[in-house]
Amino acid sequence: MILILAESTDPWALLVNRQAQDIGGDVLWVQPGQLLDRILLNWPVIASTPVMPGTLVIDGQTILLDDLTGIFARLTLPPLFDLDELSPHDRSYVIKETSAAWLAFFNAMPCAVVNRPVPGGQPTILAGSPFLSQLAKKHGFLLPSSCCTSSQADAMLQFSAWNKRVYLKPLGSHEPGIFLQAHDGIEQISRVMEQQAVSIQAIPYGQRVTVYVVREEVVAIVLQPSGDVTHRIEMPSVLSKRCLGLVGDLGFTFAECQFIVTPEGPIYCLDVSRAPGFWCCPHEVQGQIVSRLVEYLSEMRSRSRHDSLNGPDGRPSAREHLCETRSPQR
C-alpha cells in the first residue's frame, strides 16, 4: 500500500497514483492541509518486537503500518493548516506539535519515503554553506560565482555584470530555479523578488545538462538547448556516478540536478532540487520517472533494509516507547 501526501493538483502525485492503481496497487491519498482532520498516528518506537502493532487511522479506516510499502511525501513541514479559529498561541502549538509528530513518523518508518524530511529542512542551495560547498567539491563538481540578496537593484546589477547569464532561485525553495534570458531577465527578477530573497549564480559557458535521479539510479540525462555549444560535447562518463553520490549524501531519493559541462571538461553544479519540475521535464522522461517511483514505493522492505539515516527504524537507540498522536480537539 502506498500513502501519497500531496496537493490534489500535484502532477507527479497524480501520475504515481494512476500508475500504481493501474497495476493493482492500493493507494491512499491525503492532502497536507487535511493531516489533522483525517489521520491518526500510532506507532511503536522500539528496536525489537513491537508492544502493539503500529497503525494509521484514515477516515476511520485502520491500516497496519506493516502493510505500508511506501510514502510519497510531496509536502513541506510545517504544513499549512486552516487554524484561524485558534488563538495565535494555540495555533503555534498545534503547528509545532503536528510537524514534530510527522517528522518523527517519517523517520520511524522502515518503508520507502520519498523524500524523507529531516530536522531543520533539506538543503536547497549548495553554495549557501561551506559544508555543502565542500560536499559538492568532494564529488568532483565546481560551483559557479554566486550571491544571495533581497535587493532587486543588487540582483539586476549582478545580472548585468554576469553578462545576463544567471540562474535564479528563491531562497528556501525546493523546486528548480530559473535560467534567466537576456530579453526578460529583469522582469523575472522583479516578479520573483516581490515576495522573497533569491540566490543568483553566474552560468558558466558550456552544455546545460539536467539529470533526474530516483532512488540510486540516474533515470535520464537531458541535454538542454544551449547557444554556447557550437559542437557536441561528450558527456563525461563520471557524471552519473558523481551525481548519484552527491544526491545520496544530500539524503534525496528523488531529485533533479542542473549541471554545466564545460568544453574544457570541468562540471559545474548549479542546483540539486528535491522537488523536480514537472512541466519542463520531457514527456518520455516523465513516464520513466513515474515507473521507477511506483516500483520503489511498492517494494516490500524489511526493517534491516530501511533508508532512514538514524539507525533501525529511524531511531538512535533501542528504548521502548509508544508514540501516539491524535488531532487536537477543535
Helices and strands in order:
Blueprint: E1 2-5, H1 11-22, E2 27-30, H2 35-38, E3 39-45, E4 55-58, E5 61-64, E6 70-73, H3 88-108, E7 112-114, H4 130-138, E8 146-149, H5 152-161, E9 166-170, E10 178-179, H6 185-192, E11 198-202, E12 207-214, E13 217-223, H7 239-250, E14 254-261, E15 267-273, H8 283-298, E16 321-325
Return residue spans where pLDDT drops below 50 for at least 5 consecutive residues.
Answer: 303-330
**Shape by Cα distribution:** globular
Protein structure class = alpha+beta
* Strand line-up across the major sheet: 2-1-6-7
Average residue-wise pLDDT = 86
Tell me what portion of residues adopts beta-strand conformation.
15-25%
Give the distance, in angstroms, between the N- and C-terminal Cα atoms: 30 Å
The helix fraction, in percent, is 25-40%
